[in-house]
């Protein structure tokens, strides 16, 4: 009796997964980047930690004053440190200070002009080109709509091709990603130069590849 009861319960808990198929469709679009982000830093060494901190702080304050003149550029403070540097025999050799500012703008010409001025006392750590958030969301919404139509068309094709009348959607996943080709930037060594001695950097935004992938499982059905 116990064996019989177990068999009945097990059968009742089984889920029919016949006539199911899983597949995916994708949509890709090349989009011109309209935003640039630049990370710049001040790096100095000194034997005196207090004197070093004062120099780094003053230079960063001057840099932020220059940034404020460019209303199209947004800034955010980054890493800041005053740390000891030891010699091979573990004795304090000197102090090293650094302070970073993160810059972002949709006006590449203004960014290039600002960076040209800041390079008098700062070095470029990295640059990144991207599609602005609101524009990216708008484009990806249209891409998802197109991908959904592709998915439905593929589901209809598979269902009728396999001799079934209709299908139901079991599950679906929507994934989006972007790919920006890497653009190396070589930091200029710190030097006492006027901004007129430094040519403006040549920034070229390029393109980002936006990708939308829709994957899902359908269950094909014979009944009307």
CATH class of the largest domain: Alpha Beta
Order of helices and strands: HEEHEEHEHEE
How far from one another are the termini? 40 Å
Number of strands: 7
Helix content: 25-40%
Count of helical regions: 4
Please identify, by name, the CATH architecture of the largest domain: 2-Layer Sandwich
Q: Which structural class fits the helix and strand makeup?
A: alpha+beta
Summarize the biggest pleated sheet. Answer: 4 strands, antiparallel
Low-confidence stretches: 1-14, 184-195
Strand order of the largest sheet: 3-4-2-5
Mean pLDDT: 86
Tell me the number of structural domains: 2
The coarse silhouette is elongated
Provide the CATH topology of the largest domain: Translation Initiation Factor IF3
From the alpha-carbon coordinates, what is the Rg to the nearest angstrom? Answer: 29 Å
For this entry, give a set of tags.
224 residues; alpha+beta; Translation Initiation Factor IF3; Alpha-Beta Plaits; 2 domains; four-stranded antiparallel sheet; three-stranded antiparallel sheet; 4 helices; 40% strand; elongated; disordered N terminus
Describe how the helices and strands are arranged.
Layout: H1 2-13, E1 20-32, E2 35-46, H2 49-68, E3 73-86, E4 92-105, H3 108-118, E5 123-130, H4 133-161, E6 166-179, E7 207-221
Antiparallel strand pairs: 1-7, 2-4, 2-5, 3-4, 6-7
How would you describe this protein?
There is one protein chain. The protein has 224 residues and is of the alpha+beta class. The chain has 2 domains: 17-34 and 131-189 and 204-224, 2-Layer Sandwich (Translation Initiation Factor IF3), CATH 3.30.110; 35-130, Alpha-Beta Plaits (2-Layer Sandwich), CATH 3.30.70. The protein is 32% helix and 40% strand. It contains 4 helices and 7 strands, in the order αββαββαβαββ. A 4-stranded antiparallel β-sheet has the order 3-4-2-5. Strands 1-7-6 form a 3-stranded antiparallel β-sheet, with helices on one face. It is elongated and about 85 Å long.
């Amino acid at each position: 009796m116990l064996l019989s009861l177990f068999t009945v319960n097990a059968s009742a808990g089984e889920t029919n997964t016949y006539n199911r198929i899983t597949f995916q469709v994708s949509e890709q679009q090349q989009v011109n980047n309209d935003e640039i982000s630049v990370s710049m830093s001040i790096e100095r060494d000194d034997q005196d930690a207090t004197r070093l901190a004062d120099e780094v702080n003053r230079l960063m304050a001057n840099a932020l004053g220059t940034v404020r003149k460019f209303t199209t550029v947004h800034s955010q403070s980054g890493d800041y440190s005053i740390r000891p540097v030891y010699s091979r025999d573990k004795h304090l050799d000197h102090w090293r200070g650094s302070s970073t500012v993160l810059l972002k703008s949709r006006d590449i010409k203004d960014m290039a002009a600002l960076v040209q001025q800041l390079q008098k006392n700062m070095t470029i750590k990295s640059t990144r080109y991207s599609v602005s958030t609101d524009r990216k969301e708008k484009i990806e919404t249209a891409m998802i709509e197109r991908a959904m139509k592709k998915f439905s068309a593929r589901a209809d094709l598979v269902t009728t091709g396999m001799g079934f009348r209709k299908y139901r959607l079991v599950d679906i996943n929507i994934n989006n990603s972007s790919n920006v080709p890497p653009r190396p930037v070589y930091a200029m060594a710190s030097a006492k130069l006027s901004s007129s001695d430094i040519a403006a950097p040549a920034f070229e935004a390029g393109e980002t590849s936006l990708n939308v992938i829709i994957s899902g499982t359908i269950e094909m059905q014979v009944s009307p």
